[in-house]
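Protein modeling request. Please complete all fields; requests missing the sequence field cannot be processed.
Requester role: graduate student
Desired output: 3D structure, token encoding
Chains: 1
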Amino acid sequence: MARIGYARCSSEDQSLDVQIARLTEEECQPIRSEKMSGASRDGRTELAAILDFIREGDELVCLRADRLGRDTRDVLNIVHELDQRGAYLTVLDPHITTRGEAGRIVLTTLAMVAEMERRFIKERQKEGIAQAKAKGIYKGGTRRVDREKVLAMHRTGKGPAAIAKALGCSRMQVYRILDACEGAQTAA
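Delivered output (188 residues):
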């Protein structure tokens, strides 16, 4: 029976160190981590790998419920998939496990709070952008990945995984850039 750790943060400039250290203290092996939004499961390849290979009796461990996801349905679907495989989930802060019904109720509540928190963040972001636009100081988001480097590497025959690794970004970001550029070429 394995204790499989999962760590996630939303952006490249955030650190996974605290989560990984705590999962290591809990003797999780292996520990999978990724820097992807928790708004949905799309593009979260490390989580998908865990769910593909987790076995009966194994335990998926994460620091907080919002690290698993910020969508109630996604979190509950993950718990359901674990149930189907005879595995279970443990959240460390606060300590919750799906081994019993009480833990499932608390986890459902925490997943709903995480989703609500994500909505509040988006609302505050929209308000801030609207205020900045009204003041004439809004410049838009900054690109985190150099599009030209992605395209140049792609033209030399490198695949999305190699490009992502070389540039320190996710494959999903590479795919988005390639798709956007192909769409622009088709429209031209």
